[in-house]
Amino acid sequence: MPKSAISSIQCPGLQSIRTSLPGCGILLYIVLFCPYNTVFAQQEVQIKEITATLSPNFTAEDLAELTEQLSFYLKHPLDLNSASPEQLKELFFLSALQISNFFTHIRLTGKLKDVLELQAVTGFDVTTITRLLPFVTVKEELPLDFSKAGKGVSELTLRYGQLLEKQKGYTQLPGSRYLGSPGKILLQYRYHLNDRAALSMVAKKDAGESFFSGNSKSGFDFISGSLALYKSGRFKKIIAGDYSLQFGQGLSLWSGSSFGKGDDVAGIAKKDTGLKPYTSANEYSFFRGTGVTYKVIESIDLTTFISLRNLDASLTKSPEGDYQLSAISTSGLHRTAAENEHKGKLGLLLYGAAVTYNKHSLDLGFTAYHSSYQQEFITGNQRYKKYNFSGRELTNLGFHYNYTFRNIYFFGEVAHSIPGGTAVLTGAMASLSPRVSAVVLVRNYEKEHVSFYNKAAGEGSTAANEKGVYAGFHINVTKKWTLSAYGDLFWFPWAKYRIDEASAGYELNARISFKPDKMFKALLSYQTKQSQQNEGSGKPVNPIADLRKDNCRLEGNFTFNRKITLQSRFELTRYQKGTVSAEYGYMFYQDVAYHPMSSRVSANLRLAFFHTPSYNSRIYAYEDDVLHGTGSGVYSGEGIRSYFNLSYNLSRQLRVWGRYAVYVYPGMEKTGSGLEEIAGSRKSEIKLQLRYQF
Q1: How far, in Å, CA of 73 to CA of 71, rounded?
Q2: CA-CA distance, 461 to 471, in Å (whole number)?
Q3: Which residues are bridge partners to 528 per DSSP?
Q4: Taxonomically, which superkingdom (predicted)?
């Protein structure tokens, strides 16, 4: 990395540094004297900058899991000399090519003596290194002595939230109503013993669910936990309880969170982590049982797993008296009598294995697993369901590869289901120059392919009935200007939900940012997406109409005296279906954040104004929340949105968060619909969270 690039990282007194290694000396000054030494006081700011652009693509639970990973590495930096590829992949802002280049550098030059050597790794520009520094370290690797390992670290978190206005579902209705209280409760416990053991527990009650009553007489509606042991002889991982599996590019076997199309074009190439404990509050995407990763020989690992759990499902009775499966529920909500009736109705036994080979710049993997469902799937009479899975037994096979040749990272996967068809994905990512990187991906998913555990790149969510081509690039135009863009063309050979015939579309996204110094950043982005959908005329086969959505966003960030940060955003949206007149919406917000490095108190505030004619032209925007409670706010209709978050360190071990958030819809007599309906024009929520670390 050239000295000029590193010099762009500004710190007080930087010009006074003199050393025989100019670039390294400047980076050393950054590590020792810049705000990274006070990173724990500003961890919410650090994490927000990384995760803010991800919120529209993740559920609140999955986004919380990602922020928890970053928070852990802030307090317990990852040793680069002993880190595994799976651990570096958890720092999700690193691309697959950067991770591959890092391990190639280690293999060729030996272990790092200092984090400053990161500037010698191909593809690690000043932005990447600046973002990475708080989460990593370099230290001498010593043999582990459990007698000197200490007691580990524990973290206990309790969160309570509630809407202040009474929703219709909590009234004494003659029909469907909520059976529990409006409070939302989350209890989490984490324990880590170095990198050798981890214990996790999550207990959750959603709003409207019973608590120590009804179907939850034992307490929380959802309880999840796991015990993980690492590096025990040839056993690299042993997990009992709830776990996730992530292999290849997500075509055959992937559970938990995953990136898709977004501002980070390199994120389209997935970074699989194999077997890992499940720590999210999401109630669907996990396995329950045991999983083991065993080192067979050098470079070859074998992962075996078995899972037995009950899924929420809607069952129908056949004329013969047998129960058949009509739909699987993934929401995890059990508030009404009908939702409780579906709870745990579908038993699933799943077992399989994955063999992975990793040597130098080549990764190969083969996965095979079998799913046995307690009830039989039925396809239904709808046209788009013709090729859906039917029966009780399903086998999935997958082969994936990653290979780095010089500055090009090749990746891909082939998946096949029995019964069913085949799905193929292949792509390449390249550093075309120190300033330019690009990625291209081609996919062909047959309409007969079936995989209930996939997160493959694509427009749809099933990795079936889709063909497409994706291409994107990222350019560091100058030290101050960056540009990224992608385009995606997609085709659906058969009918889909709300589309009764073959269809096609495209998506284009461009983003340019300007950062002249550490105190100011401006961003301009534009996204357009055209697809097709039924006109909705009610005919047996509906004609399809073109559907187009456009978003344009202008954003500015200004840091004042390293204590107060201002963020402003103005966003326009356009929605049009067929020949109907287009509808336009807008949203403007102003954020103010107070994060003094030496204070026990931090706070942030938002005031937003929005207007969209309907839900079709809604706007999403990242919202600050209590720690790990981050998510994306939905701005729809006409109104005002505001929230205030306050955090206070009661002691070195105990911290408390509070939040008040409100939507105001002037002139509205009610908000929401169905059981969510609230009388009046206001919808407000409070949250309180405690975290104890010991």
Answers
A1: 6
A2: 19
A3: 508, 550
A4: Bacteria
**Block residue for tokens 């009479």:** 381
Q: Ranked by mean pLDDT, which of 240-244, 311-315, 358-362 comes out on top?
A: 240-244
- C-alpha 127/C-alpha 132 separation (Å) is 9
Asked whether 93 and 50 are in contact (CB, 8 A), the reply is yes
Instruction: List, in order, residues 6 or more apart from 312 with CB less than 8 Å away.
Output: 328, 329, 330, 331, 332, 334, 339, 342, 343, 344, 345, 346
Report the C-alpha gap between 425 and 412 in whole angstroms: 5
**Could you tell me which residues come within 8 angstroms of residue 5 by beta carbon, excluding any fewer than 6 positions away?**
125, 126, 479
Q: Which of 325, 307, 303 is nearest to 315 (CA)?
A: 325
Give the tens place of pLDDT for each residue, 245-254. 999 999 999 9
Helices (H), 451-512: none
Which single residue is written with the structure tokens 């007599």?
Answer: 669
Report the predicted TM-score, pTM, of the whole model to 2 decimal places.
0.86
**CA 338 to CA 585: how far, in whole Å?**
36
Q: Give per-residue pLDDT as tens, 257-306.
A: 777 777 778 889 999 999 999 999 989 989 999 999 999 999 999 999 99
**What token pair was written down for 42?**
């500003």
Instruction: Please enumerate, as own/partner, the contacts of 293-299 that have beta carbons within 8 Å and a separation of 24 or more.
Output: 293/235, 293/236, 293/237, 293/238, 294/234, 294/235, 294/236, 295/234, 295/235, 295/236, 299/357, 299/358, 299/359
Torsional class of 101: left (φ above 0), alpha (ψ -120 to 50), beta (otherwise) = alpha
> Of 628, 538, 590, 540, nearest to 67 (Cα)?
628
Is the pLDDT assigned to residue 26 strictly greater than 50? no
- Please provide residue 36's backbone torsions phi and psi, each rounded to the nearest 5 degrees: -65, -25
Q: What is the helix, strand, coil percentage profile of the chain, to 5?
A: 15, 50, 35
The answer to whether the CB of 259 falls within 8 A of the CB of 441 is no
Question: Which residues neighbour 581 within 8 Å (Cβ) at sequence distance 6 or greater?
Answer: none
Cis peptide before 434 (omega within 30 of 0): no
Q: Could you list the beta-strand ranges (E) of 10-168.
A: 78-79, 136-137, 153-163
